[in-house]
Amino acid sequence: MAYFEHEGCTLHYEEYGQGEPLVLLHGLGSSCQDWEYQVPELARQYRVILLDVRGHGRSDKPRERYSIAGFSADLLALLEHLNTGPVHLAGLSMGGMIGFQFAVDHPHGLRSLCIVNSAPEVKLRSRDDYWQWFKRWSLARLLSLETIGKGLAARLFPKPEQAELRRKMAERWARNDKRAYLASFDAIVGWGVQERLGQIRCPTLVISADHDYTPIQLKQRYVALIPQARLAVIEDSRHATPLDQPRLFNQTLLQFLATASTTSQGSLSSC
What we know:
CATH architecture: 3-Layer(aba) Sandwich
GO molecular function, one term: hydrolase activity
Protein name: Alpha/beta fold hydrolase
Organism: Pseudomonas qingdaonensis
Low-confidence stretches: none
Strand order of the largest sheet: 1-2-4-3-5-6-7-8
Structural class: alpha/beta
Helix content: 40-55%
Shape: globular
CATH class: Alpha Beta
CATH topology: Rossmann fold
Distance between the termini: 34 Å
Number of strands: 8
Largest sheet: 8 strands, mixed
Order of helices and strands: EEEHEHEHEHHHHEHEHH
Number of domains: 1
Keywords: Hydrolase
Mean pLDDT: 94
Domain AB hydrolase-1: 21-244
C-alpha cells in the first residue's frame, strides 16, 4: 500500500511485478480491488501499477469539482513520481475515458492503450439523451449507494453462479463516499475527446463485451478514427468484463501487449 500527493490530494496506488510498466484504471465507483483477477497473471510479465482515482477507494475525496482531465493529470503525476517512462495503459469504463484523455494529451507517455467498455465522449445531443441522463442523475442522488450497488450488481452479474460477484460488488459500492461518487458521475457528462482520436499513435486495442451498455457498432465507429486501433469482442460478458470473463479478458490483453511491446520498441527508440 503506497501513497503520493498531487495538488493537495493524497492518492493511493499499488505496484506488483517487474517488467514494462502497465497501468490499470478502474471505473466509476470502483477501486484497485476490481483488478483482483488480473494482477496475479499480469504481474508475471509486467510491472503492474494500480491507481485509486481521486474520490475513490483509499485515495482522498476532496470536496471539489472533478474532471476527466483532472484525473488524467493525477495519473501523469503518479507516473512522474514513479519515473516509469512510457507505459502500457488499460482502462475500464471511466478508466477508459481517462485513458483516452491521457492518450491525446500525452501521446509520448504511452507504449500502448487498451480501452475496455468505454467511449471517447459522453455528449448529450438529443432530447432522449438529456432525458436518459436526467433519470440516471436523479436516481444517483435519490437512492442510497447500497441500493445502487445491489441494482448494478444484479444487472452486471445476473447468473445464479455469479452470486459471489454480486455480493462483492454490492459490498464495495456501498463503501463509496456519495459526494465524491456524484462529483465523479458529473465529471463524465459533457466530456469528450473524439475529435482528437486521430492524434493517438500508439497501438490501441478496444475491448467490448457483447452485452455492454453501448452497442458494438459505436465502438467500431470510433476505432476507425484511431490509426493503430482494432476491436476485440468478448462474448457472454457485460460491462464488468475483467470480473465476469477474467480468463478471456486476460488472454486478450496479454496477446495484445505482447504485440504492442514489440511494436513500441521501434517507435520509442526513434523518439
